[in-house]
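Page 42, continued from yesterday. The earlier attempt failed because a stray header line got pasted into the input along with the sequence. Redoing it now with the clean sequence only.
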Amino acid sequence: MPFLYNDDGHLTVDGLLVSDIVAAHGTPLYIYSAAGFVDYFTSFQQAVAPVKGKVHFAVKANSAIAVLRLLAKQGAGADIVSGGEMMRALAAGIAPADIVFSGVGKTDDEIRLALSKNIGQINAESLAEIYRIEAIAAEWDMKAPVAIRVNPDVDPGSHEKISTGQKTTKFGIPIANGEAAEIYRYLQDSAHLTPRGLAMHIGSQLRDLAPFRKAYLVLLELADSLRAAGCEVTHLDLGGGLGIDYEGQERPDFAAYGALVEELFASREYQLGFEPGRSIAADNGILVTSVLYTKPAEDKAFVITDAAMNDLIRPTLYDAHHRIEAVELSNRAQQNSDIVGPVCETGDYLAKGQDMPEMQAGELLAVFNAGAYGAVMSSSYNTRPVTAECLVMDDGAHIIRPRKSIEEMLAEEQVPDSLSD
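This time it went through. Structure tokens are written below.
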């Protein structure tokens, strides 16, 4: 892990004191480890190296351009879900051919952007979407590279809001009723679509490999049957979803996942795609916040911090647990604490019922495993500046997204002339 306590009990990131970084850049602050991102990404690459494939980082997990460029230098492609993420990936230097465009609701403008940039693969999730891609490609007299995302109706066993593999969700085209096979044959016969293969993503934060195995076997059965029927199926996009340890400090088991993939696919003639996001990013980022006040209650203490639900919404949105520790360890007595923010919502909390030392105003807390789905989901709710982001690399701490001032936030808005003085 890149975030470690030194012998004096001070939290460090790649050898730098977190307290020194905060002294220079303030709080709330996301801090990422470049070395950690590279370590995790290359470990995933090595785990799946026995099969023929390409690793596309899921941009939705952490879309900082500096992070994307760092991973691009390690050979990463990008899995994107919007036109904005496409532009971020391109700005980071990721080759268009190495970009996969996923998502259920692509607009005409986004489809045109993808085709104009020669994006390598568009994962379509409905026949209606395929018709729109085909029509736009016909307007431009070209062929669009399309894979279809299929729904295997496999329960991944994760939180309902991040489970995407069941037939009750909005994602993918059903396999069981023959719809996916019928639509793929439509792709095969279209003059303006190039069939790229099949895609699948059954959900996020999976730490049990059994759902992966079940879903991949369903995917293979469909792919093999299509090939037997004379269809061209070159690519199988296996998605992402490998989970991380939010409770402790275990690394993701990339080796076990790689062994599963090798077992199922090494002898097959398919080009594979992988889309890890959380498993690469989460462990390699923390959110640092300052304690404002401690407010005693009947059976606990409220530790009020300058970070809030607008900075990290996962706890209130997903009931997610993040390990939180003091940046400077102490021998103070532990107390039952709710770590909360200043936003005017009862749902504004970072943790509930956590044993914490008695905290004093001005002291720092670190929220661990915050490198994924932290900064990307942050907002300016309550007119609070969006959290700054910092990347530690080359023995220094570099701001990669500065914190806006209130004046800069207000300057972004416009008032109709009729309301002006």
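Notes: The mean pLDDT is 93.
Reminder to self: strip header lines before submitting.
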